[in-house]
# Entry
Amino acid sequence: MPAQSTGLPVSIDATAALLADADYVADRSLATAVFLSLRMGRPLFLEGEAGVGKTEIAKVLAATLGRKLVRLQCYEGLDISSAVYEWNYPRQMIEIRLAEAEGVKSREGIAEDIFSEKFLNRRPILQAIEGDLSGAPVLLIDELDRTDEPFEAYLLEVLSDFQVTIPEIGTIKADAPPIVVITSNRTREIHDAVKRRCLYHWVDYPTAPRELEILRRKAPGAAERLSQEVVLFIQKLRGMDLFKLPGVAETIDWSKALVELDKLALDPDVINDTLGVLLKYQDDIARVRGSEAARILAEVQAELAA
# Structure
């Protein structure tokens, strides 16, 4: 289904520039996937490690395109009542009692009234389907891998036809399809039926030059030497067999933390003292702290001096 929205980028370069306007530094393959998703009106399925910038794509698109961001944060046990809609049962009960007090006897009439849209609580998916005055919203379905397979099956109707079926009311179809971004940290495999309805892109860790550009935009207070050392240090950490490798989010956080400590360059003591900003598991911290951190720093400094 072609995109119905206006104001969308007309080329891959324009898409990359649009993302850059919000300080999101995308490589060309990611910019291409975003461009095609916008132009074709297809959901964009982004998979990759935590902290590489998947969720940020949806936020940036909403901000740069002037659209409302509707976020569905997924979790185990997520069901239709939390994700799509549910009836406002307390209001319905009050309405029934008022009708009875007024002498209304027709059950059919009461049922028809209480199962109308004014008693409907709209959850994120239905909000995105119904749209917004500013245009079709950006629907972020975040960390789909945390949900159960039955919820994936329910999504098929939404992703195929951009519609929601409510038995008591009927089918509500989007006038203009929302811009859909689905993310997964790949803690489990998502069913092929969901992926087939999307354009797929694996969001990898950035190269050193791109990560340095990200730091220049996201942590402008850091000295250039410090930013270079931070990027090279983290790039080397990602080559180690750690339980959880640091993502771009940790790179930014670590750089900002070092700025708060008035550091202009890395040294062994500050690395050891701030590893908790960078690594989130004690086994990883214990492995890096001390001689290993000093060794990596020495390699970083030698590369920068060469």
About this structure: Strands lie at 44-47, 69-73, 85-87, 120-122, 138-142, 163-166, 170-173, 179-184, 199-202. The chain has two domains: 12-84+123-202, 208-305. The CA atoms of residues 138 and 179 lie 5 Å apart. The first helix runs from residue 12 to 21.
